Amino acid sequence: MSILLLLALNLTVYGQDEFPNTLKYNDTIGSPEANLNSLNWISGYWKGEAFGGTTEEVWTPNFGGSMMCAFKLTVDNKVKFYELVTISEENNTLILRLKHFHQDLKGWETKDETIDFKLVKVTNDKVFFDEFTFEKDGKDGMNIYVVIQNGNEENEVMFSYKREKLK
Predict the structure, then answer these.
(1) pTM for the whole structure
(2) CB contact at 8 A, 163 and 42
(3) pLDDT digits over 6-54, tens only?
(4) Which of 14, 34, 144, 160 lies deepest, with the highest CB count within 10 Å?
(5) 88 Cβ partners below 8 Å, 6+ apart?
């Protein structure tokens, strides 16, 4: 089988769109079986730059079938927004849920609404949720790729992080 045919089959199976680092979820295929053991490398304190400011993420280790993250974007020494994120084991697979908050902790989404990202694929150094990818970058680096919609335009945004020690 030729490389081009294999590539075409892989893109069809995983629903790859025009973005190189994220995959789209395919309802016909569903999510693969997975658990949080393959995501232990995500836990820790991560710091990077995006959206003209400094980003921070603190990921807890797996406990009770979930990992939890607090995210903060600070620009010019002022908080722009927060996120609360979980990755949970459900129905023998994983799901990522996210909720945004303004700097005064008033939610962007309605009270019971979350933004959910279904699992697409797991490899040794990458975890692909629907248009949301975690990529291990060496021992103390992590890249997160997210497809963000702004009006009718979609862009894949990269968040590059380095693991730091909490002070």
Answers:
(1) 0.86
(2) no
(3) 333 344 444 445 799 999 999 999 999 999 998 999 999 999 999 999 9
(4) 144
(5) 65, 66, 67, 94, 95, 97
